[in-house]
Amino acid sequence: MTQLVKTVLRVILTGISFVWLMKLKNQFKEYKVEYHNITPILLYGCYLGLGILSIFWTSSVRYTMLQLSMIIEALVFAWFYIQLVAFYNQISENHTRFSWLFGIATMWICLAFMLGLFLDPDTYYRQTHGGEVSRLGGFIINPNELGMLAVLGAVMAYTELQVAKINAKQIAVLIACVAVLLLTQSRSSLGAFLIVTGICVLMSGNRWIIMGSIISAIFALPVLVQTIILKQGDIEEVMSMTGRLPFWEDLIAYGFPQEPLLGYGFMRISYSDKFDAIHSYAAGMTHNTFIQVLLNLGLVGAFICMFQMIATGVVIGRSEDRYHKVLAWLMLVPLIINSMTEFGIFGESNYGIQFYQFVLLFFVMKVKKTQC
Question: Which helix (H) or strand (E) holds 134?
Answer without folding.
Answer: strand 133-136
